[in-house]
């Protein structure tokens, strides 16, 4: 096996007195597709928000492509990372949120161009070219000058994906990106994710309640329960053959 692109090492996270993650150990291989399932409040979002540097672990470490995310070396010691270090390491990571988080006052082309220009310091023309290419890839090549308010939820979510992809991350994080959508719009968004997954090279972590989808595209499924990884393995093993009772009762809710 190659070096993992992401390693969580005994990661704990508390909010005040509430222990939300209780020792996460997880290696993700480059190009691996990992689906995270589990009950509400089990810590799924918190796991990926720490990787996106939106939450700081209480203890433990997260290594991204060989670099310690939340710590850096100074005079031979490990010290808390500063903003510059976080920004550098975060450059490998892209995230798509449940509620799109598009900039309402920018066209969808501008939404995609802004981070390549301001974060990656790309020149405007190449940022524009890349952004148009990504928007075409998600099926929105004819909407470049529309504003987010003019789009359907599914289209907004595809813009959010193009906006993350245009940064060429090594790891893409998806947090229940279809759960705010009307049912008839879910399919088009899952299709785009499937296309991205099939291209292969990027690692992906998907928090999802779409069990069929997880079974299809994931190399591995993690069942998070009460802040620990209670079960993990290939989709068939986790979804069909696990004897974990909490997992079975969780999955039962998705069967009709
Ligand atoms: N910023 C915060 N401040 C305080 N508590 C928080 C914060 N973020 C999350 N929590 C708590 O941490 C726990 C885990 O939250 P998290 O959002 O990671 O769960 P989840 O598995 O993503 O749930 P869901 O399926 O509902 O999205 C919850 O009890 C939540 O209330
Ligand atoms: Mg969540």
Description:
The protein has 256 residues and is an alpha/beta fold. It contains nine helices and twelve strands. The termini are far apart. The protein has a single domain (31-54, 93-252), classed as Rossmann fold. The protein binds adenosine-5'-triphosphate and magnesium ion. Magnesium ion (MG) binds next to helix 1.
What key attributes describe this structure?
binds adenosine-5'-triphosphate; 256 residues; six-stranded mixed beta sheet; binds magnesium ion; 9 helices; 12 strands; 36% helix; Rossmann fold; four-stranded antiparallel beta sheet; alpha/beta; globular
Summarize the structure.
Residues 6-251 form the ABC transporter domain. By secondary structure, the chain is of the alpha/beta class. The protein is 36% helix and 27% strand.
């Amino acid at each position: 096996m190659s070096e993992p692109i992401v390693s969580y090492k005994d990661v704990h996270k508390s909010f005040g007195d509430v222990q939300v993650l209780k020792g996460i150990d997880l290696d993700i291989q480059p190009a691996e597709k990992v689906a995270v399932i589990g009950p509400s409040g089990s810590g799924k979002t918190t796991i990926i928000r720490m990787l996106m540097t939106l939450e700081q672990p209480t203890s433990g470490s997260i290594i991204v492509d060989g670099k310690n995310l939340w710590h850096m070396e100074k005079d031979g010691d490990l010290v808390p990372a500063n903003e510059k270090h976080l920004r550098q390491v975060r450059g490998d990571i892209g995230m798509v949120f449940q509620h799109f988080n598009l900039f309402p006052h920018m066209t969808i082309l501008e939404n995609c161009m802004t981070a390549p220009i301001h974060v990656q310091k790309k020149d405007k023309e190449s940022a524009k070219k890349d952004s148009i290419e990504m928007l075409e890839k998600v099926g929105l090549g004819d909407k470049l000058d529309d504003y987010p308010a003019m789009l359907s939820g599914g289209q907004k979510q595809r813009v959010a994906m193009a906006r993350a992809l245009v940064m060429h991350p090594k790891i893409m994080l998806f947090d229940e990106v279809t759960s705010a959508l009307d049912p008839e719009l879910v399919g088009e968004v899952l299709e785009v994710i499937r296309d991205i997954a099939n291209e292969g090279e990027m690692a992906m972590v998907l928090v999802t309640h779409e069990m069929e989808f997880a079974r299809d595209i994931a190399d591995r499924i993690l069942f998070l329960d009460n802040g620990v990884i209670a079960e993990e393995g290939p989709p068939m093993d986790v979804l069909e053959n696990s004897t974990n009772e909490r997992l079975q009762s969780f999955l039962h809710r998705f069967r009709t």
